[in-house]
Design brief:
With 297 residues, this protein is mainly alpha-helical. The chain has two domains: 123 residues, no CATH class; 158 residues, Zincin-like (2-Layer Sandwich), CATH 3.30.2010. 65% of the residues lie in helices and 5% in strands. Strands 1-2-4-3 form a four-stranded mixed sheet, sandwiched between helices. The longest helix is centred in the C-terminal third of the chain and has 41 residues. The chain is elongated.
Length: 297
């Protein structure tokens, strides 16, 4: 029996599926970390690996926690955004206030970013510390329903605690990168105990291969998680607005844009509604695919 390609997608089902897929991808990252640690513990003394893990945890967790608790300030400062004036940007405030009522979220701080591109992003460690920032281009080029769809998407990230979620992933990815780097560098300082080296030769070779490949693998997994969170935010936007055409219209306008790239840090690029860099699309799903999914809701 042939399946109907036009079958409607329920936004709640879409959200649940994307969360499940994201969890599965996180399990992959954790599994890679465990396997890498297991192999290194056989290639070297287990106590040596324990020291590596302690160093990795201190560096990665310390760095990420500082970024996490200041994520809103860092993101806003990095793009040169200014807090939106309530009188000048009345519609911006009205739309967000309406969406917070629909979503049950507290009112975030609103910012404007100088850029002709149509774009927006949300940041903050939780809904109480959230910020939503839009470009001048988004306010100028999008109609009310399209802008509402974009803002609902950003509040979807806030409601799903995506910053917290991605921070946890970043901690594990950072640990894998640090463990791999320390392991590879430590090979230069190994002793010349032939008996010990021969006994651990197989694990040593496997460890080297994993140390080289693991950071690459988890990097792509991290990008896949980022894309799933974008689909999840799209579904949340439909849940909040009950009007998919608004978000679809905004995506179609973004697809046709010819504005020069906004100069922003690549570290904050995954936060944006659409990728601010035309040459790097892996942090975001393909726009046509997003539109295709939304048209079925």
């Amino acid at each position: 029996m042939k399946m109907d390609s036009t079958r409607r997608i329920n936004f709640d089902d879409q959200i649940s599926r994307n969360k499940l897929k994201s969890f599965f991808l996180m399990v992959i990252v954790f599994t890679v970390l465990v396997i890498l640690g297991y192999v290194i513990s056989f290639a070297f003394d287990p106590g040596y690996f324990f020291v590596i893990m302690i160093i990795a945890i201190i560096f990665s967790v310390g760095y990420i926690l500082i970024s996490y608790y200041n994520s809103d300030k860092i993101a806003i400062a990095s793009v040169g955004a200014k807090e939106a004036d309530k009188l000048k940007y009345r519609e911006f405030y009205d739309l967000v206030e309406g969406l917070t009522i629909a979503s049950g979220l507290p009112m975030p701080k609103l910012y404007i970013m100088p850029s002709r591109q149509i774009n927006a992003f949300a940041s903050g460690r939780d809904p109480k510390h959230a910020v939503v920032c839009v470009t001048e281009g988004a306010l100028e080029k999008l109609d009310k329903k399209e802008l509402e769809g974009v803002l609902a998407h950003e509040l979807g990230h806030v409601s799903s605690y995506d910053i917290r979620y991605m921070t946890f992933v970043a901690v594990m990815v950072g640990m894998i990168s640090i463990v791999s780097e320390i392991f590879l560098r430590s090979l230069w300082f190994r002793g010349n105990d032939r008996e010990n080296n021969q006994g651990n030769a197989i694990f040593l070779i496997i460890g080297i291969i994993l140390a080289v490949l693991a950071p690459i693998i988890v990097y792509f997994v991290q990008l896949a998680i980022s894309r799933k969170r974008e689909f999840n935010a799209d579904a949340s936007a439909v849940k909040f607005t009950r009007y998919p055409p608004g978000l679809i219209g905004a995506l179609k306008k973004i697809k046709k844009e010819t504005e020069p790239e906004k100069k922003v840090s690549k570290a904050v690029a995954p936060l944006f509604f659409s990728n601010p860099f035309k040459d790097i699309g892996s942090t975001h799903p393909d726009i046509d695919k997003r539109i295709q999914v939304l048209e079925k809701m």
